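Hey,
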Amino acid sequence: MNKQILILLIAILPLSSTYSQNESKPHIKSEFVEVNGIQTHYLDFGGEGLTIILVHSEGWDANTYKNFGPLLNENNRVLAVTRPGYGDTEAGNYEVESQGDHLIAFTKVLGIEKAVFVGNSSATKELTYLAENYPKRLAGIVYLSGLAVPWLDVHSSDPTRAFEMYGRVGPSANSNKIKKEIIQKARASYRPLHFISDTNKIEVPAMAFVAKNGRQGHETYVAALLWAGSSLTDDIRNTFPSSPLKDYLDSMANDLVFRNEQFNNIQDSVAREYFVRLSRDNIFQKEIQEFHIQKVYPATLQAQDRLIDAYGDNMKLIRLDVLQIVGYEYRDTPELIIDHIIKFLDDLK
């Protein structure tokens, strides 16, 4: 349990789906194809029509969509690809641009002219890169994490290093053969074109899920504080939907023995010492929270607005009756989003 939880907590992910897959769905095929010299793993969920490609976030691979993919293949061809350096796909460059180029090369090898790319969390970078640089190869984009903006650079000026240390927690891709900080550094340089200049517009149909307030719903919280069990995050923790993740975070906040066990499992010694201190130092917790509210929070809202503006009328925001968008609803509560996605796909045809 510990390794899985550590991976998922990097991106605030629920563990496993409570949704029961229909056993009558076609058998899932696990396949490999060579893409620019890299043996690339993917899952084929079958189906015919518009091609849907599911893209995983950090710490995962194509198998994270094994229950979700079959829900989309009634009138679509559905694939889930494992990115280079993750799971069973051979290693490649971790830069967002390289990862995005590989996704397009993957479609070319399979003879796919256009596809709808669906992803969440850190994969938001790849989706946005594709939308800005390969609009003619895309039929649409679905942001499962809503208005996530993982390209913010305000964290680099954080004297508390909360964002950096949180990113260094837990195992990483390819069974931890590549250190987490190496991947983090490679991906950190990416900035979308629209983030650099307001004149860059995205001409690709897109859909993003938002919470009741029209945002992700958790912009004010600090992931590092949440994971450290800080009482400053009690309010946001209590808004998490019932899931293995919610149970885990409650244990981190309320069970000292459990929390210490998780800290002892952190492989990065610097990050381990950081979180041990953070969990005990209330003044340090307040410093982190203050920087976030004063600097990160307004920058996050501004970046979200720029993303919406870049898409303009091409972006469809789906407001769900929830307090926050976790981004892994597809795993825990797919019934919240599946009908919206199917309608979006049907409208594209």
